[in-house]
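Before relying on records like the one below, remember that each one covers exactly one chain. Contacts with other chains, cofactors or solvent are not represented anywhere in the record.
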Amino acid sequence: MAEEAEGGTFWVRTLAKGVSTIGALLASITGIFVLISFSAKCIAMGIFMIGAGLVMLMLEATMCFMFLDIGKWIESKSDKIKSWQKMFFYFLLCIPAPAICSSTSSYIGSFGFLLAGMCYMVLTIGPKGTAPPQSAASVPYARQIDDISTA
């Protein structure tokens, strides 16, 4: 199954979706504050942050957009996106706003994208390894002595 290939347990995937949803809401709300500015670059970045937050919310919380025609299509496609693709996408989303408009709100909103990317990075890396079986790990002391004396 695709969920087993992702490398994360159920609670890690749920945590990543929850943090991504909160990050999307954070980016959209702070995008409104970036939008209220006198600089054209900051206004553009505010619109970008609101739009990127909504796209991220569509990918993570698809049930919020089921009343739209595109909601069903996004739900069918959202589960097929691999975690490394989401990680890369969210890391790319966190770069433009603070780079173009250096305000506190743009840094806070981009932090939401960064947190989501970091959660999906944990899913991409996956578990580092499993513990060896107990029978293979424990060698009797007498066998160790025999190996040393015969060598």
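The CA atoms of residues 83 and 142 lie 48 Å apart.
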